[in-house]
């Protein structure tokens, strides 16, 4: 049984997962032209081209996970469990739905994921359910910490952990999963689509002068924002914004006086997220805060909602979140 937890890629550091011995892939064969003589005339006739072969992973394949453990795949895993919503989205994007035999309680996209057997939480999955599912591979993401991974391994469950922290990490994970599961062409297709989204935004905001860049607050959960070193900060800066929490690291509780002083010109928040205590949406909470009516974003009605999953999950839809954020900051530039 092989459990995969997280993301990895040949181009990233061992802490994030890497291909130890990158496999060779089959390629298309080139057709050859042939010359023939007919009634004294010379004609050039192209020989039929061979049908291009799909890229195929060569096994055995050696891969290291984010914990530094080396795995050897003798063939493409046929029974997969994912206990992380981001990685579940990656696997479905690679058209592996027919091989997935279990997901976490929080895996809700695509709709097909809702029909899969549930394996418990993303932090500490149900051990009995995992063992009973008899999976070749279980994928878990950044939320599963090393002690939980080692506990599962002590039960002879081979957990492969990955930790995507940037867009490039996600692209790398997709390509690595394409190698592991022999879905290289589909992985390259998804990666190309994500790169196109990122390039669309980069092209739209590349002409901004420093003084034209807008100050942005991203309140991803009631009372919480994010600093550098996290992918949500990358979404803001890649969209041409200046994160007012960019001088902090990781996740930060909001300091309301600091936010008022920073005076963000745009506030981004996740749509349809309800505060457990007040039962209000984040935009309602923002507009009702004392003194926040003087903030440019509130005063000028630039409090912008975006899809929560797109900005909170480091998966194949995160570049759609990037486009959404860029539209929210610069609607005149990003169409």
TrEMBL record:
Stretch list, region Disordered: 15-51
Keywords for this protein:
Signal
Q: Where is the Fe/B12 periplasmic-binding domain?
A: 79-333
UniProt similarity note: Belongs to the bacterial solute-binding protein 8 family.
| NCBIfam families xref list | TroA_like
Q: Which domain of life is it from?
A: Bacteria
Q: Where is the composition biased (Polar residues)?
A: 32-44
Q: Which PROSITE patterns match?
A: FE_B12_PBP (PS50983)
Note the coiled coil stretches, chain numbering. none
What this protein is called in its record is ABC transporter substrate-binding protein
Under the heading Pfam families, the entry gives: Peripla_BP_2
Q: Cross-referenced InterPro entries, in alphabetical order?
A: ABC_Transporter_SBP (IPR050902), ABC_transptr_periplasmic_BD (IPR002491), Vit_B12_bind_prot (IPR054828)
């Amino acid at each position: 049984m092989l459990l995969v937890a997280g993301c990895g890629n040949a181009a990233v550091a061992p802490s994030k997962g890497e291909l130890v011995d990158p496999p060779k892939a089959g390629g298309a064969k080139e057709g050859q032209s042939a010359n023939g003589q007919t009634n004294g005339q010379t004609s050039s006739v192209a020989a039929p081209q061979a049908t291009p072969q799909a890229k195929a992973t060569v096994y055995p394949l050696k891969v290291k996970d984010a914990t530094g453990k080396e795995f050897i795949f003798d063939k493409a895993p046929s029974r997969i469990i994912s206990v992380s919503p981001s990685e579940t989205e990656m696997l479905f994007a690679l058209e592996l739905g027919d091989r997935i035999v279990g997901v976490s309680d929080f895996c809700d996209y695509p709709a097909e994921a809702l029909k899969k057997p549930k394996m418990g939480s993303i932090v500490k999955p149900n051990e009995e359910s995992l063992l009973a599912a008899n999976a070749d591979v279980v994928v878990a993401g950044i939320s599963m910490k090393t002690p939980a991974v080692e506990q599962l391994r002590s039960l002879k469950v081979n957990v492969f952990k990955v930790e995507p922290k940037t867009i490039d990490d996600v692209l790398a994970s997709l390509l690595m999963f394409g190698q592991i599961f022999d879905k290289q062409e589909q992985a390259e297709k998804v990666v190309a689509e994500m790169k196109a989204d990122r390039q669309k935004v980069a092209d739209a905001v590349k002409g901004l002068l420093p003084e034209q860049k807008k100050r942005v607050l991203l309140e991803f959960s009631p009372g919480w924002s994010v600093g550098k070193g996290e992918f949500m900060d990358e979404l803001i800066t890649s969209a041409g914004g200046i994160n007012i929490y960019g001088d902090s690291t990781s996740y930060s509780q909001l300091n309301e006086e600091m936010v008022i002083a920073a005076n963000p010109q745009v506030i981004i928040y996740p749509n349809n997220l309800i505060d457990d205590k007040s039962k209000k949406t984040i935009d309602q909470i923002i507009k009702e805060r004392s003194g926040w009516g003087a903030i440019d974003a509130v005063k000028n009605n630039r409090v912008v909602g975006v899809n929560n999953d797109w900005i909170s999950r480091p998966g194949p839809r995160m570049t759609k979140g990037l486009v959404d954020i860029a539209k929210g900051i610069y609607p005149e530039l990003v169409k």
